[in-house]
Amino acid sequence: MFEEEKRAAAMEAIKHVKSGMKLGLGTGSTTRYFLDALGELVKSGKITDIIGVPTSKKTEEIANSYGIKTVNNINNIDIDFDGADEFDPDGNLIKGGGGALVREKIVAYNSKNVFIMVDSSKFSEKLHKFPLPVEVIPFMEDQTLSHIEELGAKCTFRDNKKFISDNGNYIIDCRFDYTDTGLEQKIKMIPGVVEVGIFHNITTKIFKGNGNTCEIIDIKKL
Ligand SMILES: O=C[C@H](O)[C@H](O)[C@H](O)COP(=O)(O)O
């Protein structure tokens, strides 16, 4: 059922892509539906002159396999298309379940619009269900983890440190029983932390699958 919803969300979101646009290309299984559909549009010549900024090596590979041009340093991205692990009624997100949070956050921050595609299971009144991913430098990493735990979390290295991000770093999954507005800043203040998977106040629209249809939730005025 959730696969159908992911696909429905991606199929609705892709209607906003026009020839000549610069696109942020997210990471994950929902974005995969978007990338496959975009690839078909590009291959058939219905959409031309697209430039994509991929948020992971995996996404770059997929995009390039369809002949979509990708770059990693560009101004004025028109729309960033990405998924999320959890979203709240204000469009705040938890991301990084696939370990791509650093590049995803940079791309979202540098995009005029951020369109988030999700299935209905990702909704939460208050962000707390999905363990918060935090990317840390592989140096004094056990100490970095302890400092995050001092903020009230139970933390584990993803796959016992076997998971290495595209940036060569570890991901720590943090179970907090609270989220407050300052949590992102408090974690980011810890030396060794590269990025936190809380995406606050960055979403333009949410495309939420509902069975085989899609609900569009406007978060910010365009
Ligand atoms: O690091 C990965 C990303 O934040 C994904 O966008 C997120 O994990 C959602 O992925 P999926 O669409 O597979 O649920």
UniProtKB/TrEMBL annotation:
Subunit structure, as described in the record: Homodimer.
Catalytic machinery residues: 104 (proton acceptor)
GO CC term (a single one): cytosol
Source species: Acidiplasma aeolicum
Known catalytic reactions: aldehydo-D-ribose 5-phosphate = D-ribulose 5-phosphate
Summary of the function given for this chain in its UniProt record: Catalyzes the reversible conversion of ribose-5-phosphate to ribulose 5-phosphate.
Record protein name field: Ribose-5-phosphate isomerase A
Chain segments annotated as transmembrane: none
GO molecular function: ribose-5-phosphate isomerase activity
Gene name of the encoded protein: rpiA
GO terms (BP aspect): D-ribose metabolic process; pentose-phosphate shunt, non-oxidative branch
Pathway(s): Carbohydrate degradation; pentose phosphate pathway; D-ribose 5-phosphate from D-ribulose 5-phosphate (non-oxidative stage): step 1/1
EC number(s) given by UniProt: 5.3.1.6
Residues holding substrate: 27-30, 82-85, 95-98, 122
Pfam families, per the entry: Rib_5-P_isom_A
Keyword set, alphabetical order: Isomerase
Similarity annotation: Belongs to the ribose 5-phosphate isomerase family.
